[in-house]
Amino acid sequence: MTATVISGKEVADDIRAALREEVNGLKQHGILPGLAVILIGDDPASHSYVKGKIKGCEETGIYSEVVYKEAAITEGELLDLIEAFNENPNIHGILVQLPLPAHISEKAVIDKIRADKDVDGFTPVNVGNMLIGNDCYLPCTPHGIIELIKRSGQEISGKHAVVIGRSNIVGKPVAMLLLQENATVTIAHSRTQDLASVTKQADILVVAVGRAEMIGAEYIKPGAIVIDVGVNRAASGKLVGDVQFESVKEAAGYITPVPRGVGPMTITMLLKNTVEAAKRLAGLPQQ
Question: Are 150 and 247 in a shared domain?
Answer without folding.
Answer: yes
